[in-house]
Amino acid sequence: MTSVTSRWLVDASGRRAFIKRQLGLQKSSPHQASAAWFRFSKWIKIDQWCDDPAWQEGHAGKTARWYSTNHLMGQGYWVWLIPLASGSTSMGIVAAEEFHSLSDFNSFEKALAWLEKHEPQCAQAVRENSDQLQDFRAIKRYSVECERVFSGDRWGITGEAGFFHDPFYSPGSDFIAFANTFLTELIRRDLTGHGFRLRAFSYDRIYKRFFYGTLQAYQDQYRMFGNPTVMPVKILWDYLMYWSITGFIFMQDRLCEQSMYVRNLSRLSRLGKVNHFMQDFFRQWHEQTKDVPATGAINISEMPIIREMNQRLQEDLQGRAFFQRFAANLAQLENLGCEIVAHSGLSLSVPWGRSQSMLVRQDAFAHVFDSWQELEPVSLAETV
Ligand SMILES: Cc1cc2nc3c(=O)[nH]c(=O)nc-3n(C[C@H](O)[C@H](O)[C@H](O)COP(=O)(O)OP(=O)(O)OC[C@H]3O[C@@H](n4cnc5c(N)ncnc54)[C@H](O)[C@@H]3O)c2cc1C
Fold it and tell me: How far apart are the first and last CA of the chain?
């Protein structure tokens, strides 16, 4: 055995979770979902699965669908298809335990049988390419939590060694970036003679608040995966939450600025409640619409609000402009929440008011329907 000493210890050991286990910081996650994934040594081209013009339209040449990560979704699950630079295709089944048990897809043969039942077109592609199978892995209950990730005793945890939510939207790399940014600042402060112990305490709390805020997008929400009425709107909402708060703060290089959180405390806590309300609303909306067939398709990337909010991540906002934009982001989300709930037709009243600020779009959600394209029912049944 070799022994080493160092001023700081940072655990990036993934699920080995060295510090978490040593210090007994493990916490079970309420989000119980599992995954299995496998690779084929060739690119599988989803564009070829159906020759209906509606499926091909707008996706010729360099805009072919197979270049992107594609998700096939149904109640309680999603299936990913990712073209890898190596020339392989990664495919994965991710499902909430409440709806699908891992024991039904934890080997290649079982995964194929599961796909036959839930995603027959995908199953056909898997069967046709089974001689190109490279590997197969599965993980039961991938969500992990931790009591604490940063300590004034000069240790810290980053990545899956501490927390992991869910692979949908890929938040794992974001939270690695958040933890690394906080840890780098703590170590920098220590090495330059600045106080870091209290900071370790507050950064730990901020990190966990971001984690649990983001977890709301997943916990108890797999039921609506595959609902064509609710899911596109939920994805829109989740993107905008992300770009308005965590993504925004990080891109503006304000993650470690304690005074920024103090100044925005009431806004952040209000927004936590707004998100909680909306995620609950999505569950209720799902209950009302789960048997309604799909009638249209939305291209999220064409929506003005999505483009605007995405482009704004690049803005360089100094001083007052940052706080103004932050306030506008929050007001925009509140207005969007009002519009979405009103559009749903559910008899729910939103427990917050609308902002009339000039910085906020007053009809953000109306534009969703600008990009909504009616589909022939036949083509949808064949392709999705
Ligand atoms: C089902 C699933 C699908 C995912 N899909 C995606 C995706 O499509 N895109 C995406 O961005 N993210 C995805 N993620 C998330 C991503 O895998 C994780 O966020 C990321 O791998 C975590 O990185 P990490 O460095 O914390 O841990 P790891 O990637 O596990 O790295 C930890 C490293 O530490 C090493 N190690 C452990 N113990 C020791 C030791 N004692 N000594 C030396 N080395 C040690 C390990 O060998 C390993 O190399 C997915 C996660 C899951 C569960």
Answer: 56
Whole-number pLDDT of residue 214? 97
At a CB cut-off of 8 Å and minimum separation 6, what does 254 contact?
260, 322
Can you tell me which atom of ligand 1 is nearest the CA of 175? Answer: 19
* Residue of 11, 20, 160, 207 with the most ligand 1 atoms within 8 Å of its CB, for mutation: 160
Q: How far apart are CA 356 and CA 360, in angstroms?
A: 7
User: Ligand 1 in contact with 3 (CB < 6 A)?
Assistant: no
Alpha-carbon torsion (91, 94, 99, 104), positive or negative = positive
9-45: pLDDT as tens digits: 999 999 999 999 999 999 999 999 999 999 999 999 9
Q: Is 13 in the pocket of ligand 1 (CB under 6 A)?
A: yes
Sign of the CA dihedral running 20, 23, 28, 34: positive
Tokens of 27: 């916490």
**Cβ 22 under 6 angstroms from ligand 1:** no
Q: φ and ψ at 66, to 5 degrees?
A: -70, -15
CA distance 222 to 218: 7
For 66-85, how does the pLDDT look when each residue is reduced to its tens digit (9 = 90+)? Answer: 999 999 999 999 999 999 99
Task: Identify the residue whose tokens are 């055995």.
Answer: 1
Beta partners for 152? Answer: none
Q: For the domain bounded by 33-56+67-139, which CATH number is listed?
A: 3.30.70
* pTM, full prediction: 0.92
Neighbours of 216 (CB within 10 A): 19
Domain ranges of the chain: 33-56+67-139, 145-383
Task: Report phi then psi at 18, rounded to 5.
Answer: -55, -55
Rounded to the nearest whole angstrom, what is the distance from the C-alpha of residue 173 to the centroid of ligand 1?
A: 9
Residue 33: strand, helix, or coil: strand
